[in-house]
UniProtKB/TrEMBL annotation:
Residues 29-205 form the Ribosomal RNA methyltransferase FtsJ domain. The active site is at 162 (proton acceptor). Transmembrane segments: none annotated. This is Ribosomal RNA large subunit methyltransferase E. Specifically methylates the uridine in position 2552 of 23S rRNA at the 2'-O position of the ribose in the fully assembled 50S ribosomal subunit. The gene is rlmE. It catalyses: uridine(2552) in 23S rRNA + S-adenosyl-L-methionine = 2'-O-methyluridine(2552) in 23S rRNA + S-adenosyl-L-homocysteine + H(+). The lineage of its organism: Bacteria, Pseudomonadati, Pseudomonadota, Betaproteobacteria, Neisseriales. The keyword Cell membrane does not apply. Pfam families: FtsJ (PF01728). Belongs to the class I-like SAM-binding methyltransferase superfamily. RNA methyltransferase RlmE family. It is an enzyme of class 2 (transferase).
Length: 206
């Protein structure tokens, strides 16, 4: 058995004592991230009965769970992740790498030319431990997600994406403002304070 590092011990201790982890277990959500989307949706009313949306980077599925509940039987949730995801009622899922053209084409075929009301993206790259590399990889995924949103959202549609503050943040905000009327930041309470993650909400696609 390898000895746990102090940082991984601290993470484990935080995780075990995490209010949102306990809530997720009690409420039947697959991850604490569910409460980030619930809190943002409470404020911004992005997902309503009948909403048609795509969830990029969906595994293990907590955002898809929330989205399917809120969109209801008249809504549709299309989800994509490089990792496997157990089935969720009301969610159509494809496993594959979002960066590959063939996977994107398969996902677009699943959409069947439906214009989307909303694109949500809680995607993050596999972390290498090199901050510069990880930041660059993260924004590459975010840029792909923005491109997808611009191409598949109906006029007036919305886009919610997780980003990490640092290099590339201002440029990415500027790119979002070119495509959407309003871009706002959201830092839900379920997002850990020490994390540099922040959510950008782009409203009303031009």
């Amino acid at each position: 058995m390898s000895v746990r590092s102090k940082s991984s011990k601290a993470w484990l201790n935080e995780h075990v004592n995490d209010h949102y982890v306990h809530m997720a277990q009690k409420d039947g959500y697959r991850a604490r991230a569910a409460y980030k989307l619930l809190e943002i949706n409470e404020k911004d009313k992005l997902i309503k009965p009948g909403t048609v949306l795509a969830d990029l980077g969906s595994a293990p599925g907590s955002w898809s769970q929330v989205a399917a509940e809120l969109a209801g039987e008249k809504g549709r949730v299309f989800a994509l992740d490089i990792l496997p995801m157990d089935e969720i009622q009301g969610v159509s899922f494809i496993q594959g790498d979002f960066r590959e053209e063939t996977v994107l084409a398969e996902f677009e075929a699943l959409l069947g030319n439906r214009p989307l009301d909303l694109v949500i993206c809680d995607m993050a790259p596999n972390m290498s431990g090199n901050a510069v590399t990880d930041q660059a990889r993260s924004y590459y995924l975010c840029e792909l997600a923005l491109d997808f949103a611009v191409n598949h959202l109906k006029p007036g549609g919305n886009f919610l994406v997780k980003v990490f503050q640092g290099a590339g943040y201002q440029e990415y905000m500027a790119a979002m403002r070119e495509a959407f009327a309003v871009v706002q930041t959201r830092k839900p309470q379920a997002s850990r304070n020490r994390s540099s993650e922040i959510y950008l909400l782009a409203k009303n696609k031009r």
